[in-house]
Amino acid sequence: MDILTTTHLSKTYHIGDVTVEAVRDVSFAVAAGEYVAITGRSGAGKSTLLYQLSLLDTPSAGSVAVKGEDTSHYSERRKTALRLATFGYVFQDYALIPELTAIENVKVPLLMQGCYRGCDERAAEILAAVGIGDRMHNRPSQLSGGQQQRVAIARALVARPSVLFADEPTANLDTETGETIMTLLDDLNASGQTIVMVTHEDIYAQRAGRLIEMQDGKIIRDEAQ
Fold it and tell me: Cα-atom radius of gyration of the chain, to the nearest Å?
């Protein structure tokens, strides 16, 4: 079953008199359980494509279908509800709320969906699952970069998303910590989690089951590994 399908997807930015075609006529599908790595040089359009796929941005042309349903005409409210119910996000800068503890950060997606019972238990469970359960009452400033990224991954997984999006998840981490985070992603995919990851690191891209390479906004390679 295809969870995500893009059809002739394009994204164009207008900066003054300059037109930038960040994504150009991209069509492909992601099946349930796949681990897809999107690679390419800086400026190739890979992060822009991820934002279109994950409905964090609106394409200039083309469409994104989620579980077979075209989202082109969705209102922002409906897109938000779909994102909360279907997607999890991991960003390179962690995007944690500094005033909240780890467990409070992880609970945010649940609270946004109206969770009133069992939220603490679910957040604690997923923090333990990603190996950071002993730091659940610490704020981001009291955690290392790797620990913060584990919290971010826990937050992304807490609502049991169909797809986990990861945008350069190791970019701000040292080699050893980056390897730890990648091993965690490997294990998640092995358990059935669908993952779409953007990375410029070939060594990490090679761990995915499928490689999509971008250049100048277009897909120039799409192959199983």
Answer: 17
Model confidence, pTM: 0.92
Delimit the domains of the chain by residue range: 2-224
8 Å CB contact between 201 and 170 = yes
CB contact set of 147 (below 8 Å; sequence gap of 6+): 132, 135
Q: Which CATH superfamily groups domain 2-224? A: P-loop containing nucleotide triphosphate hydrolases (3.40.50.300)
pLDDT in tens, 101-147: 999 999 999 999 888 788 999 999 999 999 999 999 999 999 999 99
Q: In what helix (H) or strand (E) does residue 23 lie, and over which residues does it extend?
A: strand 18-31
As a whole number of angstroms, the distance between CA 103 and CA 192 comes to 24
**Phi, psi for residue 223 in degrees, rounded to 5:** -150, 150
Query: Which pair of tokens denotes residue 188?
Result: 């998640």
pLDDT digits (tens, 9 = 90+) for 75-108: 999 999 999 999 999 998 899 999 999 999 999 9
3-state class (DSSP) for residue 54: coil
